[in-house]
Amino acid sequence: GLRGCQSQLGVVVQNGGGGVTLTIDNSTVRSYGKNGITASLAGTVLNVEDSVVEGRGPVLLGDAAQNGIQIASGATGSVRNSTIKGHAYQPETFSSTGLLFYGSAANAEGNIIEDNQVGLYHIDGNGTHVGNTFAITTADVGVNNFWGAVFDDPMPSRLPSPVDVDVSAPQ
Predict the structure, then answer these.
(1) Which of 4, 10, 5 is nearest to 30 (CA)?
(2) Does residue 5 surpass a pLDDT of 90?
(3) pTM for this model (two decimals)
(4) In this predicted model, what pLDDT tens digit does every residue of 43-92 receive, in sequence order?
(5) What DSSP string runs through 57-119?
(6) pLDDT tens readout for residues 151-165
(7) b or e along 58-96 (b: 16 or more beta carbons within 10 Å of the residue's beta carbon)?
(8) Which member of 48, 91, 165, 168 has the greatest number of CB atoms within 10 A?
């Protein structure tokens, strides 16, 4: 039941009006559809430490372009000393990412980021990214184009595929 579902998420946290903080420590997240861990909206803080987030990649056309950890839409947070792996999408019409920081203040430190089409994608935000290790090969991700880290606004042909959480729906 995971194929193609854009809203099948492992863990979701978002501000419901008063602010919320979630810390995920020494955990494993796998077997999800779209995103492993998602934090959205201003007032939301996500901290991931000493954990593993493992995608199903490479996934094929018709499936969801997976992201390991997404901090977006004003949320803040950090990912430290964790392993994020196995996120790739075929064909290369979208990009799957290990860490997707989109419109957020987020930090990545001391992570192992491997076998992801894009290891770390930080768009429209700020943060510190130090001591991360990136490893990737065409054989492991099944695509010809891949990047360790991207820090910029993407070209239209390389847009990431973030999950868009419906803020009006009860969570």
Answers:
(1) 10
(2) no
(3) 0.86
(4) 999 999 999 999 998 888 888 889 999 999 999 999 999 999 999 998 88
(5) PSEEBTB---EEEEEETT-EEEEES-EEEEE-EESTTSB-EEEEEESSEEEEES-EEEEESEE
(6) 876 666 666 677 776
(7) bbeeebbbbbbbbbbbbbbbbbbebbbbbbbbbebebbb
(8) 48
